[in-house]
Amino acid sequence: MQGFASTLDARWDKMSDVERRSAVRTIAERSRSLGRLMDHLLLGARAGAKELQVQVESFDLGERVRAATLGMPALSDKHRVEVDIPHGLPWVDGDTLATDILLGQLLENAFKYSPDGGLIRVSVWRDGDRVVVTVEDEGVGIAPDDRDRVFERFVQADSGDRRRFGGVGLGLYIARSLARAQGGDVTAHPRPGGGTRMRFVLGATRAYIESDTPKR
Asked: Counting C-beta atoms within 10 Å of the first and last residue's C-beta, which end of the chain has fewer, N or C?
């Protein structure tokens, strides 16, 4: 939300009407998601819940990726954004709110940690009984020893070249927590040629898997 608002403030006259409307629409969608998240967190705290609660249902992960990347090209003059979502993807079982927040964090990091610009590529595909989303950037990358540590709380500030970008180190911790609460996961990998590839996985809806399995 802050990124899109700052972009509107700094680049209003350089953006087309379509780009401005897209950015405003994204801010509205993210603010609604944030409000719902706060409701969930408050309810969980009042109930004394010790684990993150999600509402698992079947949804179109490809559609959530499209919504998350809407308006992203207008955020920066230095970055190019490519999105590859094939037709016929199975739906997944998970929480749409948790997924929206998780995708937003991965995309925000891709821009943040590639300050010199370059390609940000988002890809979605089916892998057996799972659906995979990757977010790649051409930025500073993550040191091998830190590729799992960046998902711990408050570790970001001590993770190699990434420490100079600030932050408290909670974004990826929250992202992984949200993924695992849905039965999925988020992992960090090196991108060939430099940069980072973040990999988010959710399980495909069981009904789809069964309908797609040849009968004996």
From this structure: C
